[in-house]
Amino acid sequence: MSKSKAGYASKLKRAVHLLFYKRHAKPGVKGWELRKAIGSDYVKVLEILDKYLKNLDLQVKTFFEGGESSEKANSRELDQARFYVTLRGELTPKEAKMVGWRIDDLAGLAVAICYIISRNGKVSRKEVEELLSEKIPGWRVSQNIDRYIRYGYLAEDENGQLYLDWRTLVEVDQKALIDMMLSEEVK
Fold first, then answer.
1. What is the pTM of this model?
2. In this structure, are 85 and 111 located in the same domain?
3. How many Cα neighbours within 13 Å face the side chain of 117?
4. Could you count the other beta carbons within 10 Å of the beta carbon of residue 40?
5. Which pLDDT does position 164 carry in this prediction?
6. How far is 24 from 83, CA to CA, in rounded Å?
7. Structural domain span for residue 35
């Protein structure tokens, strides 16, 4: 193995350690942390890692503050972006159970996301609670919404308005979710 291959192997290993092990309240790692730990070529290292993870149905995702993604992001934008590993494909009900989510919790999240999208990105918490209480026991509705907020799928402003948070923007294919909800299969 050449010296450069050994160097990249070491950088890949370090990137895996940073991306897979939670060190902050939010999963993943900021670009500046990767640059500090791996070097200025951390984006190239992440591209190589993404190719390795493809066989495991995983991928390295990039989230830019404000949800704006750019193919030609500059180094300053990349340093402020958050990188983390997520599923490449769909989560099955069996897999969801293994990560601690009940299927009705996931369904509630899907409904909340779709409802927020249908209302142009913001809706009152009360409206979402009323909608979810039609299908989920009332005592669990508030708990579930708090959980969605805590995990970064939804956010709530000071006026009690819910909107999509960073994790939904990165992990959820919104178009596919809406298409699935409107398809005959769900009915």
1. 0.70
2. no
3. 18
4. 10
5. 93
6. 13
7. 3-89
